[in-house]
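Progress against Task 2.4 (sequence-to-structure conversion) is shown through the following example record, which the project officer requested during the mid-term review.
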Amino acid sequence: MRALRPLIFSLLLFGVPSLAHAQNGDVFGRWLTEDKKGVIDIGHCGDMVCGAIDYVKPDPAKTGTPHDEHNPDPKLRDRPLCGLVILYNFKETDPGKWEGLIYSPENGEIYHANMHLEGPELKLRGYIGISLLGETQTWTRAGPSVKSCRAG
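Structure tokens generated for the chain above:
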């Protein structure tokens, strides 16, 4: 037992934080949106979590690079959607639960949002005011075959 004490102490000291990070870190990576029209790459932005558009399905009715055409600021309507940060200021509020803001390029609106994992799926809920007044989307991991618009 005496020989196991250093091992147990090491596991408690170093193993627990890495396990917590592995469980909570599962939100990181590339996620296919519910409508399958985009991929959002979620990662660290300083001490917060953010997500940027990493793929946009081409609209057959339009030509060229998709832009932020619905932005309420006319000066920003020419910026490309590829690489645009749409999830920002997300902080972990409980283990595996995150709250922040989401920008919708489909209508140019910003919403409060929360996200958490349910099995292999990411549940992201955008809302106005209170979470009850919102909509939940289910995102799935983007496979390696889904290309990145940021790949150069």
